[in-house]
């Protein structure tokens, strides 16, 4: 679906939550370029962050909110008057607590609170929920090469617990919580299940990477660049035919060349002991055809424009 007419976007107000991460902040900029008015909701901004963003967005169609996902009133305030919500939960990648089961409860509670707030916000017509490929791939069918994986699959909660795959566990439970609320409250929701998001801050401590070797061997290790991830979120929001879940990635790490390239971006050269003699290509077992069909006619020229006008 092509981008909406300027007059339509200019009358549309949407909320981005959490707007402080790489995904959220880029979504804010891109939505502004498309003519939207944006409520930028920050989960737990450090001291001075809100004031800084308010200065950055001065004279633009942005209003900055502090919206604690565990403070129902603050969520309602941030979404007031918005027709859509882009929701993501991005805990610090270097937070050691992410390796504990407690983070699963934190993400699930946050998802529950936000979807419940959406149900009581009459103006919200659509929710785009950011999830992860790790909520799709982990199950007892892992290493069963005859079975392909797409958006219809769900990670097995007990499997994730058994092998301490905390990222997959958290994303699976949070997304299932969101879907349960959406169906119960008749909320129009779609989810984007993204691969490993590439960026300058990516490092080996990223919780997505737990089980990376197994993902690679099984043809399920996928990555996505920030621009494509953002475009995908806006596409599923604007396209009235979008529904359900969408696997989002634009590269699969299934050969030695790509694996070495990724390893070099994550580790010092001395630590990347990967054999250059391995020329095997792993069979791709994961499909993003559903999203690709939707993205065919999507206008992606906006991200080439400058977002930093005065």
UniProtKB/TrEMBL annotation:
Gene3D superfamilies reported in the protein's UniProt record: NAD(P)-binding Rossmann-like Domain
Domain NAD-dependent epimerase/dehydratase stretches: 17-201
Pfam families, per the entry: Epimerase
Entries under InterPro entries matching the protein: Epimerase_deHydtase, NAD(P)-bd_dom_sf, NAD(P)_dehydrat-like
Keyword Protease appears in the UniProt entry: no
Signal peptide as annotated in the record: none
Keywords: NADP, Oxidoreductase
SUPFAM superfamilies listed in its UniProt record: NAD(P)-binding Rossmann-fold domains (SSF51735)
Example GO molecular function: oxidoreductase activity, acting on the CH-OH group of donors, NAD or NADP as acceptor
The name this protein goes by in its record: NAD-dependent epimerase/dehydratase domain-containing protein
Organism expressing this protein natively: Acer negundo (Box elder)
């Amino acid at each position: 679906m092509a981008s909406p007419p300027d007059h339509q976007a200019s009358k549309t107000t949407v909320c981005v939550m959490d707007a402080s991460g790489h995904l959220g902040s880029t979504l804010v900029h891109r939505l502004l370029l498309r003519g939207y008015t944006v409520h930028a909701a920050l989960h737990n901004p450090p001291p001075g962050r809100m004031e800084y963003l308010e200065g950055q967005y001065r004279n633009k169609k942005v209003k900055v909110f502090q919206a604690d996902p565990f403070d129902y009133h603050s969520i309602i305030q941030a979404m007031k008057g918005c027709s859509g919500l882009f929701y993501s939960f991005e805990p610090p990648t270097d937070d050691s607590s992410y390796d504990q089961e407690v983070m699963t409860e934190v993400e699930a509670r946050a998802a529950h609170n936000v979807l419940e707030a959406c149900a009581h916000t009459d103006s919200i017509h659509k929710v785009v929920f950011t999830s992860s490929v790790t909520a799709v791939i982990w199950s007892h069918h892992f290493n069963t090469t005859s079975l392909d994986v797409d958006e219809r699959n769900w990670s097995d909660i007990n499997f994730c617990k058994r092998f301490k795959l905390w990222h997959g566990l958290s994303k699976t439970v949070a997304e299932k919580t969101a879907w349960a609320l959406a169906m119960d409250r008749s909320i129009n929701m779609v989810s984007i299940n993204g691969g490993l998001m590439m960026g300058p801050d990516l490092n080996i401590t990223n919780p997505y990477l737990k089980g990376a070797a197994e993902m690679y061997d099984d043809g399920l290790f996928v990555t996505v660049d920030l621009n494509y991830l953002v475009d995908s979120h806006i596409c599923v929001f604007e396209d009235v035919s979008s529904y359900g879940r969408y696997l989002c990635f634009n590269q699969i790490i299934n050969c030695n060349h790509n694996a070495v390239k990724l390893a070099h971006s994550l580790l010092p050269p001395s630590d990347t002991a990967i054999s250059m003699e391995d020329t095997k290509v792993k069979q791709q077992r994961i499909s993003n055809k559903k999203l690709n069909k939707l993205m065919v006619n999507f206008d992606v020229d906006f991200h080439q424009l400058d977002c930093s006008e005065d």
